[in-house]
Amino acid sequence: MGRVTSRRPVLRIREGGVTRSQDSLAAEEPMEIRVSGRPLTITMRTPGNDFDLAVGFLVGEGVVHREGDVRSARYCAGVTDSGENTYNVVDVTLDPSLPPLDPSLERNFYTTSSCGMCGKASLDAVRSATSWPVADDPLTITPELLAQLPERLRRAQRVFDRTGGLHAAALFSETGELLVVREDVGRHNAVDKVIGHAARSGLLPLRRTVLMVSGRASFELVQKALMAGIPALAAVSAPSSLAVELADDHGLTLVGFLRGSSMNVYTGTQRVSQPSRLA
Questions:
Q1: Which residues span the domain enclosing 233?
Q2: Which terminus of the chain is more solvent-facing, meaning fewer CB atoms within 10 Å of its CB: N or C?
Q3: 76 counts as catalytic
């Protein structure tokens, strides 16, 4: 839709002097997610792959479990003063055989692009039962393969090259094949877009895959990975204590500080092949 970036004037101050020019910024706009016409939540996101975002969000909430659960996704009401569609309202129609939505999911305030957990009633609600346990997933990966993932993710970030302001998430097979990559101003949105793409393509559960994220590994990202049946999550930055605890509870392999050949494997170490002699 051509709304992923915007151009704004900027005053550039450098050691060599001061200039005025145009700068590309990562777009951030609100998107309302509705289910069968009923407003569910509003999230701040970068426009693009909005249907993936909406479906991925519903997977993370335990509403959608497989491709057939979603009958359709479409843009609906939401217009500018001139009557043009804003493309900021997505309505998802679910299979009528699914149970009604839990009223606790309804959120009367927006979810910011930096927080995927706003609106959760309690920690116990977040620790919802996963659709596909990952503890017995046969995924095995080498440190050498893991070391390649951050740079491969970075090379796939097309919009980041123009703005420097987007997070990214990518799904890799156990052999290192890049399956899908998505960018967004919000870390959790990028993950939702990856998972939503998989759900809409009938790929859930995502067994024998690795989810690679460009930032830190927070609790909500571990939770989203678990809800999609992903057995391993790798991040270039640090995990939180609660993320490690949740990953350990469910048998997910969590890798943090993945930079070059260095990394910390916090949980699920049995999936990462190790040298015969450890230092």
A1: 143-271
A2: C
A3: no
Q: Looking at the 3D structure of the chain, how many domains does it have?
A: 1
Domain contains 46:
no
Give residue for tokens 């001139």: 82
Give domain status of residue 182, yes or no.
yes
Over residues 119-175, the pLDDT tens digits come to: 344 345 445 567 889 999 999 999 999 999 999 998 887 655 555 568 899 999 999
Name the CA dihedral angle for 262, 264, 267, 271, rounded to a multiple of 10 degrees. Answer: 10
In 3D, which of 44, 16, 26, 43 has the Cα closest to residue 161?
A: 26
* Higher-confidence position of 237 and 78: 237
**Cα separation of 73 and 57, whole Å?**
13
| Cis preceding-peptide flag for 205 (omega within 30 of 0) | yes
92 domain-assigned: no
Q: Report the predicted TM-score, pTM, of the whole model to 2 decimal places.
A: 0.85
Catalytic residue, candidates 25, 98, 101, 115: 115
In CATH, what number is assigned to the domain containing residue 259?
A: 3.40.140.10
Q: Is residue 32 part of a domain?
A: no
